[in-house]
Protein backbone atom coordinates (compact mmCIF):
# COMPACT_ATOMS: atom_id res chain seq x y z
CA UNK A 1 0.00 0.00 0.00
CA UNK A 2 1.23 3.42 -0.98
CA UNK A 3 -0.22 6.52 0.63
CA UNK A 4 0.39 10.05 -0.55
CA UNK A 5 -1.06 13.52 -0.41
CA UNK A 6 -1.85 16.35 -2.78
CA UNK A 7 0.23 18.67 -0.58
CA UNK A 8 3.41 16.62 -1.11
CA UNK A 9 5.49 17.68 -4.09
CA UNK A 10 8.45 15.37 -3.42
CA UNK A 11 7.48 11.73 -2.82
CA UNK A 12 3.85 11.44 -3.96
CA UNK A 13 4.50 12.46 -7.59
CA UNK A 14 7.14 9.73 -7.99
CA UNK A 15 4.74 7.10 -6.69
CA UNK A 16 1.64 8.08 -8.67
CA UNK A 17 3.07 9.17 -12.03
CA UNK A 18 2.70 6.96 -15.05
CA UNK A 19 5.46 4.38 -14.80
CA UNK A 20 6.09 5.34 -11.17
CA UNK A 21 6.40 3.12 -8.12
CA UNK A 22 2.71 2.16 -8.04
CA UNK A 23 2.66 1.18 -11.72
CA UNK A 24 5.86 -0.84 -11.32
CA UNK A 25 4.61 -2.76 -8.29
CA UNK A 26 3.24 -6.27 -8.55
CA UNK A 27 -0.33 -7.08 -7.55
CA UNK A 28 -1.86 -6.82 -5.05
CA UNK A 29 -1.20 -3.10 -4.83
CA UNK A 30 -3.02 -0.11 -3.39
CA UNK A 31 -2.63 3.66 -3.68
CA UNK A 32 -4.51 6.20 -1.58
CA UNK A 33 -3.89 9.94 -1.94
CA UNK A 34 -5.32 12.22 0.74
CA UNK A 35 -6.56 15.64 -0.33
CA UNK A 36 -4.34 18.35 1.17
CA UNK A 37 -1.93 16.02 2.99
CA UNK A 38 1.73 16.95 2.88
CA UNK A 39 4.77 14.88 3.79
CA UNK A 40 4.32 15.53 7.51
CA UNK A 41 0.81 14.02 7.57
CA UNK A 42 2.39 10.67 8.54
CA UNK A 43 4.28 12.13 11.51
CA UNK A 44 3.37 13.60 14.87
CA UNK A 45 3.97 17.08 13.45
CA UNK A 46 0.61 17.04 11.67
CA UNK A 47 -2.15 14.92 13.26
CA UNK A 48 -4.89 16.20 10.90
CA UNK A 49 -4.93 13.07 8.73
CA UNK A 50 -4.51 10.37 11.40
CA UNK A 51 -8.12 9.13 11.19
CA UNK A 52 -8.05 8.99 7.38
CA UNK A 53 -4.68 7.25 7.29
CA UNK A 54 -5.81 4.70 9.89
CA UNK A 55 -9.08 4.13 8.03
CA UNK A 56 -7.07 2.47 5.23
CA UNK A 57 -3.98 1.26 7.11
CA UNK A 58 -5.72 -0.83 9.78
CA UNK A 59 -7.84 -2.91 7.35
CA UNK A 60 -4.76 -3.32 5.12
CA UNK A 61 -2.70 -4.70 8.00
CA UNK A 62 -5.61 -6.87 9.16
CA UNK A 63 -5.87 -8.29 5.64
CA UNK A 64 -2.19 -9.06 5.15
CA UNK A 65 -1.09 -9.85 8.70
CA UNK A 66 -4.21 -11.53 10.06
CA UNK A 67 -5.74 -12.89 6.86
CA UNK A 68 -8.96 -10.88 7.29
CA UNK A 69 -9.57 -9.26 3.89
CA UNK A 70 -13.31 -8.59 4.18
CA UNK A 71 -12.99 -5.13 5.77
CA UNK A 72 -10.38 -3.98 3.23
CA UNK A 73 -12.46 -5.26 0.31
CA UNK A 74 -15.58 -3.48 1.58
CA UNK A 75 -13.67 -0.25 2.14
CA UNK A 76 -12.08 -0.22 -1.31
CA UNK A 77 -15.32 -1.11 -3.07
CA UNK A 78 -17.25 1.60 -1.20
CA UNK A 79 -15.73 4.27 -3.46
CA UNK A 80 -13.64 7.33 -2.86
CA UNK A 81 -14.58 9.54 0.12
CA UNK A 82 -14.26 13.35 -0.02
CA UNK A 83 -10.88 13.42 1.76
CA UNK A 84 -9.31 11.04 -0.79
CA UNK A 85 -8.27 12.57 -4.11
CA UNK A 86 -7.05 9.34 -5.73
CA UNK A 87 -7.78 5.70 -4.93
CA UNK A 88 -6.35 2.86 -7.00
CA UNK A 89 -6.04 -0.83 -6.33
CA UNK A 90 -5.31 -3.98 -8.24
CA UNK A 91 -5.71 -7.33 -6.54
Structural overview:
This protein has about 90 residues and is of the alpha+beta class. The chain has one domain. The chain starts with a strand and ends with a strand.
Short précis:
This protein is an alpha+beta fold and 91 residues long. Helix content is 37%, strand content 19%.
Spatial arrangement of strands, main beta sheet: 1-2-3
User: Kindly, what is the distance between the CA atoms of the first and last residues, rounded to a whole number of angstroms?
Assistant: 11 Å
Morphology call: globular
- Provide the low-confidence segments as ranges: none
How many domains? 1
Key descriptive features of the protein:
three-stranded mixed β-sheet; alpha+beta; single chain; 91 residues; 4 helices; 3 strands
Chart the SSEs and their pairings.
Blueprint: E1 2-5, H1 12-16, H2 21-24, E2 29-34, H3 50-66, H4 70-77, E3 84-90
